[in-house]
Each structure stands twice: as structure tokens, then as C-alpha cells.
Specification:
The chain starts with 8 loop residues before the first strand and ends with a strand. Helix content is 31%, strand content 27%. The protein is elongated. The longest helix has 14 residues.
């Protein structure tokens, strides 16, 4: 299926391998992206994927204020070794009212510090790939991507609010949303096969297959 357009506004600060991976994956969902880095060469690469590119230092408070971080639904801090810049930018983003702040950390110590200043999600890049993080930001219902090929994705996801209390047939998930439900994990039980008369419960975990071009 075609990926649904994402209506969220993203600011990605830091365009190393991890940050660029996030930008490229968000672009697949036609998301509105502001990409920021100190390096002009990295910004040049990002112009293909981001609607706006800005050369700025995340440790420069005046520059961060000018970016208007509070206007973004999600601010991703993907800076490299400059942990001080990540902390400053995270505090400013929270202070200015950004919807969600996601930051990269190297090790559990940095993770704890970022969490203590209010960062909503801390990512350890050696554990989580940028592309996976971006997909979860676009669709927070997705719990984990189990397998992905060029044209299809198998993932675990929570039911959308509008599906809860309806049967598979009533929600018309395959036709309206492009997901084929392969299995339902309900507590200790795994329901296979999934028939159209099964009613979806809020705590269900859906194992889904989606196809894309």
C-alpha cells in the first residue's frame, strides 16, 4: 500500500548517519521536516528530503529560539558527541512547548540525564536504528517492526482508538487502512486465524502485514 501522509511537523537537529536516517524515513511519509546541522555538506544532502534546512549550532540558544522549536509536534535531537548541545536544545524545546522531544544518547548515564530534564523518548542508537525510530514517531501505534522487505512490512501494533469495540469486518481495516491482520495476541492467547467477526479489544496486540510500493 502507499504510506499514509504524516501531518506532524518534525524538527531534526543533527544530520549524522542516525539523524539523516530519520529524515529520509520521515520523508517517505511526506512529513513536514526541518533539518538542522552545523555542516553545510550535510544540509545539502538533506535538501532532497526536508522542506526546510537551517545551518545552526544546537548549543546556540539564540539560534534555537529562532527555529521556533515550540511550533513542532516532534523535535529530534540527533547530535553526535556534543552532549552539552543536546541538553541545551532539549531544555529549550521543552521550555518552548514542543509536543514531543526525542534525543539520542550514548550510554545509560546520558539516557538518565536526558530523562531527568524531561525528554520524552531517549534513543540509544547502537540499539535502535534511525529508520525504526522514525516509523514509530510517524505511527505510535506500531510497537515493533518484525520484518521489512522492499515491498512489505510485518509489525506488531496497538489497535487504533476507532477500531476498539468493533469487529475486524466492521472496522474494515484491510480496505480502509491497508493492514492485513495475521494474528491477535490477547493476554496469554494468540488468535490464529483472524476472522472478520472477532471484536477488537483495547489491550490486543495486532500482528499486521502491510504492503507498499
Amino acid at each position: 500500500m502507499d504510506k499514509e501522509k504524516c501531518e506532524l511537523q518534525f524538527a531534526v537537529l543533527g544530520l549524522g548517519r542516525f539523524g539523516m536516517s530519520i529524515v529520509k524515513t520521515l520523508a517517505e511519509y511526506d512529513a513536514n521536516i526541518l533539518a538542522c546541522d552545523r555542516d553545510p555538506a550535510r544540509l545539502h544532502e538533506a535538501t532532497e528530503y526536508a522542506a526546510h534546512v537551517v545551518q545552526a549550532d544546537a548549543a546556540d540558544e539564540d539560534a534555537m529560539h529562532k527555529l521556533g522549536l515550540g511550533n513542532f509536534d516532534v523535535v529530534v535531537l540527533a547530535m553526535g558527541e556534543d552532549f552539552e548541545a543536546s541538553v541545551i536544545a532539549a531544555m529549550l524545546a521543552k521550555e518552548l512547548g514542543a509536543g514531543k522531544v526525542v534525543a539520542k544518547a550514548f550510554g545509560t548515564r546520558q539516557k538518565k540525564i536526558l530523562e531527568s530534564i524531561g525528554v520524552d523518548q531517549v534513543v540509544l542508537p547502537e540499539v535502535e536504528m534511525g529508520a525504526k525510530v522514525a516509523r514509530n514517531l510517524v505511527n505510535p501505534n506500531v510497537l515493533d517492526v518484525l520484518e521489512q522487505t522492499g515491498r512489505q512490512t510485518i509489525a506488531e501494533m496497538c489497535p487504533r482508538d476507532e477500531w476498539v469495540g468493533k469487529t475486524i469486518g466492521e472496522a474494515d481495516i484491510r480496505k480502509r487502512y491497508g493492514y492485513t491482520i495475521l494474528a491477535i495476541v490477547r493476554g496469554e492467547e494468540t488468535i490464529i486465524p483472524v476472522t472478520t467477526d472477532i471484536k477488537i479489544q483495547k489491550e490486543d496486540i495486532l500482528v499486521t502485514l502491510s504492503k507498499h510500493e
